[in-house]
Amino acid sequence: MDQSKAVLMERPPVYSELPIPSIPCLGGVKKLVCVVLVVVVLVLVLVGVLLMGLHMSQKHTETIFQMSLQDGSSTGAHGTGVATFHLDTGINSSASVVYDYSKLLIGTRPRPGHACYITRMDPEQVQSLETIAESVLSKITSDASRQDDSMKPVTDRSLLGTTIKVLCGSLPVYWA
């Protein structure tokens, strides 16, 4: 053993370490990638929560509307309230619908459009938004030339409630 120590002492083995090229900002890049990844995940979570909230608020509005219709139809009288809704009826077309329970009228203003349309509300069975979209809006869009002949204009605007008057403004109003 002494000989091996002596040999090692005379000629020590060559240990060499090759230097690894170091990139000075490599630690910063890892931090930057982590920060960007966390921000992307947070944005995706936030967008998901917002979309889920929007969906839930739409369902809540529809549920409240259905409950108000069921409560009103069971008593037979709807009170004096007004309900306003927006219908998306397709590409580049929509409509605003006003349920006026005091006047028992439903006002519809299609957009784009140059007139308003009203129909009587059945106090026992209030028409749903789908029914309004199918019946009133299909009559309106069927044929513009026949539209003026088949629908009677409202001559006395005092029949309309304040909300329907505001909805229609100065546009002509027809019975649908």
Question: Could you explain how this protein is built, in words?
Answer:
The structure is a single chain. The protein is of the alpha+beta class and 176 residues long. It folds into two domains: 24-75; 76-175, Enolase-like, domain 1 (2-Layer Sandwich). It contains five helices and five strands; from the N terminus they run ααββββαααβ. It has a five-stranded mixed sheet with strand order 1-2-3-4-5, with helices on both faces. Strand 2 and strand 3 (105-111) form a beta hairpin. The longest helix has 50 residues, at 26-75. It is rod-shaped, with a radius of gyration of 36 Å. Residues 89-176 form the BRICHOS domain. InterPro entries: BRICHOS_dom, SP-C, Surfactant_protein_propep. Pulmonary surfactant associated proteins promote alveolar stability by lowering the surface tension at the air-liquid interface in the peripheral air spaces. The chain crosses the membrane at residues 32-54. This is Surfactant protein C.
